[in-house]
Amino acid sequence: MIEQVIDHLAHALNVSGEALREANLYREGQTTPYGDVLMSCHLEKLWRQLKESSDYKRRSAEIEAFNQVRAALHYSLYL
Predict the structure, then answer these.
(1) Which of 10, 24, 41, 72 is in Cβ range 3.0-4.6 Å of 28 for a Cys bridge?
(2) Are 22 and 46 within 8 A, CB to CB?
């Protein structure tokens, strides 16, 4: 459900879902809505490593090409 919300927002903002997710990662030093200060937050590093190790750009491009020629069936790839 939340993935659909993020995709809808990304479309409305004319950005990729990936870019919106990345922009909203917690970062070290931020304060959560619960008042906790993040002192050891490695999400940005993990995000970069995951994108690289999963070959996300290539796989995402392949899925986009697949979706362009098939109107009835669409695939997605999320991090």
Answers:
(1) 41
(2) no
Rg of the chain over Cα atoms, rounded to whole angstroms, equals 15
* 3-state class (DSSP) for residue 41: coil
Half-sphere CA count of 59, side-chain side, radius 13 A: 12
Q: Is the pTM of this model over 0.85?
A: no
Q: What pLDDT was estimated at residue 70?
A: 81
- Looking at residue 71, its amino acid is A
Q: The tokens of 24 are what?
A: 């909203």
The structure tokens listed for 51 are 């994108």
HSE-CB for 40 with a 13 A CA cutoff? 0
- Tens digit of each residue's pLDDT (9 = 90 or more) over 17-62: 899 999 999 999 999 999 999 999 999 999 999 999 999 999 989 9
